[in-house]
Amino acid sequence: MKELELKYGCNPNQKPARVYMANGELPVTVVNGRPGYINLLDALNGWQLVKELKEATGVPAATSFKHVSPAGAAIGRPLSPTLRSIYFVDDDAELTPLACAYARARGADRMSSFGDFIALSDKCDKATALLIKKEVSDGIIAPGYDDDALEILKAKKKGAYCMIQIDPDYTPEALESKTVFGVTFEQGHNFIKLDENCLSQMVTQKKDLTKEEKDNLLISLIILKYTQSNSVCYVKDGQAIGIGAGQQSRIHCTRLAGDKADKWWLRQAPQVLNLPFVDGIKRPDRDNTIDVYTSDDADDVLRDGEWQKFFKTRPAPFTKEERKAWIAKNTDVAIGSDAFFPFGDNIERAHRSGVTVVAQPGGSIRDDNVIATCDRYGMAMSFTGIRLFHH
Question: Is 351 considered catalytic here?
Fold first, then answer.
């Protein structure tokens, strides 16, 4: 198939819409449903991300995409009981590495992942399909589907769930183009390979990186390669815990991603794990309630007449001081940036969310200030020399 007609473009008024190949066949096949324009943008970016994560780590990978940036991405490491709880994975659920990767990718930022497009590095298996079945999602791309997984996912959205299969051996042409306002842009495809060689230039007093730290930094960089710029990514234990995308200011990226990382960590606090939710509360409502409860706007779900909608009994407030003390317990977090940090304030903000290792291109006229800030906190920082803008 050389061409696929779409319902419309980014918006319903943008017709006609299609995807097509100037040379050769499309590398994707629609297995079920009907993809939209934005679905395919998410699918193709997400597939590249998980393919590179699998190549870099040797572990199955998954990502949860929304509006052309990942809300979460991860490799398939086992889930602790606490992670099972905050990701709403049943205690008796059998998890494959791929299913663990998806649970982590979806669980990083559940608010943003609502209605996501999923990408998997490996053939979708039953365990992963059963997790996806419970979530509100627009579609999925994978190199294949087991028969039982296919039947589970086909039943989503009253049979209209979008499922795409991609040729895992497909390689794009060296030149890519797009048209904006009638003007065609052309550039070389970003084939740059991100591996441990990117992390060889250590510029801080602390020079050594463990295997775990290298993996986390590489995961952050690969995620950034497919995130709308400017972007910053916090990673812990093989998964993104906070992604700041599409901001005009670097510090705003760092704050946004750091706030999301803090939210991820706050969900593991005893006050949150033990929230007495009413029976039958829907998953999105539970996610929204947790998000508000762990914020300065907690009274929106705790005041009289409101808390009864969500809780069996009124929980004690999670005070600002308690939240700050809990966040201070987080550590061993890695941070990557798609372009240089221009000021040490980015490092200051990252430190407050448990960051201990940093990867960024370097090249700012204030590199000395950024390095000195890392040294003050005993952080290790690598200058990769690689900018990872993506638009």
Answer: no
Which of the residues 51, 54, 66, 214 is marked catalytic?
66
Q: Is the pLDDT of residue 1 over 90?
A: no
Tell me which of 67, 123, 133, 390 is the catalytic residue: 67
Q: CB count, 10 Å around CB of 201?
A: 12
* Whether 230 is catalytic: yes
Tokens of 131: 């997790």
Mean pLDDT of the chain: 96
Task: Give the whole-angstrom CA distance, residue 5 versus residue 17.
Answer: 6
CB 164 within 8 A of CB 31: yes
- Hunting for tokens 């991300």 — which residue is that? 49
How many H-runs (helices) and E-runs (strands) does the chain carry? 15, 15
Query: How many Å from the N-terminal Cα to the C-terminal Cα in the chain?
Result: 27
Residue in 51, 72, 71 with CA at minimum distance from that of residue 61: 51
CA distance 146 to 214: 33
* 189 has catalytic annotation: no
Distance CA 195, CA 106 (A): 25
- Write out pLDDT tens, residues 264-321: 999 999 999 999 999 999 999 999 999 999 999 999 999 999 999 999 999 999 999 9
Place of tokens 């991820």: 264
User: Which structure tokens are listed for 76?
Assistant: 């398939």
Question: Which is the catalytic residue, given 39, 230, 330, 346?
Answer: 230
Instruction: For residue range 349-377, list pLDDT tens digits in order.
Output: 999 999 999 999 999 999 999 999 999 99
